[in-house]
Design a protein that fits this description.
The protein is an alpha/beta fold. The protein is built from 13 helices and 15 strands. Strand 6, helix 4 and strand 7 form a beta-alpha-beta unit. Helix 2 crosses helix 3, helix 9 packs across helix 10 and helix 11 crosses helix 13.
């Protein structure tokens, strides 16, 4: 149970009230650091506001995916609403949350805005308000289609997000133009979350580096620059292969024919995953290419007689995935391939020690020193060079280590 709110959280909770100096605003935008308390107070305020001006109406709750929306917003808010006298019913099969109070019922439709095609999901609706959780992760077409649905008098827009790059459409169109859009803009830091202890704040400050520190800890919309993993230049980030056995093994693969092929063998000991060996074949340096079957033979040699629980492969390598499946020896799956989010999750896992890179993995060590952001491009994109071991490590973290759920050790809440 929340014991108190910060001044900034209270502003979020009250901005829509007739006695507030911000009552005439059409929208609210909250951005800033992770774990800064913006998401929870915004979801609570949105629900309460819905009964204040438009009881018995339809509203939309939007997230990157419906599962992330439930995790970040719906599941945490229901117990508090129930304790305040609201009656909540989450209709999972229909993705509708109904909330009742004082004989009035509001319907909150849940939408995932993961790509351009998501805009069609919300077409045709009439809404009294919409809340976007992780707005910067949604395509512009989806956001604008949802905004167009809010045609009821008194309808308002609610946005929260963590920063991305400074050329991002949401930063340019909404945050930079907040006054023109008649929106209240509030920037949050971890100090705006009174439930966060100094110890936890320090943990997050130590967890990130480089651009992710600037964005997730400082809450700044900054451009990427320099090395993707600058902290990996420290020799302490590498270790010898630990003695003793491993309770689980897995393999991650970035497949290439003309480009290098990289495979990593991982073993888990005491809850930590170690990259204990690897295979790296660069056809340009070797002067010849290898077939799918030859790469499969290399996979078998890498694994030896170990029992491999899972093999994650570059999702574009359909022919190689089929070869692995046809042999029937390994359980293979296409890897999750969100580059920037994957890099963030790898950074987190390396920094908190959930994964360790052993000194036996020379190709990985070399690429960690060479893998850089492409500063010539406006989006967050690493240079497509010296990235093959980097990609297979990313596949391991996002697909095998956390099963594609987005939880590595402890997820950075948005």
């Amino acid at each position: 149970m929340i014991k108190r709110f910060s001044k900034k959280q209270l502003k979020v909770l009250r901005w829509w009230h007739k006695n507030s100096p911000h009552y005439s605003r059409d929208a609210i935008i909250c951005d800033g650091a992770v774990r800064s308390g913006k998401t929870f107070c915004m979801s609570l305020s949105f629900i309460i506001w819905s009964f204040y001006e438009n009881g018995g109406s339809d509203f939309a709750l939007c997230g990157k995916t419906i599962s992330s929306l439930r995790r970040n917003m719906v599941t945490p808010i229901i117990p508090l609403l129930n304790s305040l006298g609201f009656v909540c019913e989450d209709k999972l099969s229909r993705n509708i949350l109904t909330v009742s109070y004082g004989g009035v019922t509001n319907r909150f439709y849940l939408f995932g805005g993961k790509d351009e095609s998501s805009a069609s999901l919300i077409q045709g609706m009439t809404l009294s308000g919409v809340l976007f959780d992780e707005a910067a992760l949604m395509p512009r077409s989806f956001v604008e289609q949802a905004l167009a649905r809010c045609s009821v008098n008194g309808s308002r827009f609610w946005f929260n997000c963590n920063p991305e790059h400074p050329e991002h459409w949401f930063y340019l169109e909404w945050i930079k133009k907040a006054e023109r859009k008649n929106a209240l803009y509030l920037h949050f830091t971890m100090d705006d979350n009174p439930s966060l202890s100094d110890r936890v704040k320090r943990r997050y400050e130590n967890l990130y580096s480089g651009v992710f520190y600037e964005r997730f800890v400082k809450g700044r919309w900054v451009a990427v620059y320099g090395a993707v993993y600058p902290f990996m230049s420290d020799e302490k980030m590498y270790c010898d292969v630990p003695s003793g056995g491993f309770d689980r093994y897995a393999v991650s693969i970035d497949y290439g024919t003309v480009n290098p092929a990289s495979m990593g063998l991982w073993g888990r000991q005491n809850g930590v995953w170690y990259r204990i060996d690897e295979y790296y074949f660069d056809s340009r340096k070797e002067g010849c290419q290898r077939t799918d079957e030859e790469h499969y033979d290399a996979l078998c040699r890498l694994c030896g007689d170990r029992k491999i629980s899972a093999v994650a492969v570059d999702p574009s390598a359909a022919s190689f995935i089929e070869v692995v499946r046809r042999h029937g020896k390994f359980s293979v799956k296409p890897a999750q391939n969100s580059v920037v989010n994957g890099i963030r999750r790898v950074t987190q896992a390396l920094k908190d020690g959930s994964i360790r890179i052993c000194n036996t993995c020379a190709a990985s060590r070399r690429e960690f020193m060479l893998y850089k952001w492409d500063t010539a491009k406006r989006d967050d994109v690493p240079v497509k060079k010296n990235d093959h071991a980097m990609d297979d490590i990313r596949y391991f973290v996002t697909t095998i280590m956390d099963g594609g759920t987005g939880a590595v050790a402890f997820a950075a809440e948005r």
